[in-house]
Design goal:
Length: 81
């Protein structure tokens, strides 16, 4: 019997910030979604600034340099559970 296991890779692949949601796609295909209201600094920033992000912590975090905001994948997983 063959068992196939999914490869887990919790590093950030893409981030989408809309007017009311934060969606983070991980490299293994999972998507973490949360209401933008949970992140006041992001929610209060203009959409143009929310769209400028970069990975941090070897891909396990997200940094918005124009807002000086940081979120970790681990923290997002805990907050959306």
């Amino acid at each position: 019997m063959t068992i196939s296991a999914a490869k887990i890779d919790a590093r950030v692949a893409d981030v989408t910030v809309s007017e009311d949601r934060l969606d983070v796609r991980l490299r293994d295909g999972r998507v973490i979604s949360a209401p933008l209201a949970w992140f006041p600094r992001l929610a209060q920033a203009p959409l143009e600034q929310r769209q400028v992000w970069e990975t941090s912590a070897a891909g396990l975090g997200i940094h918005w340099p124009l807002i000086d905001e940081d979120l970790s994948v681990e923290g997002l997983m805990r907050s959306s559970a």
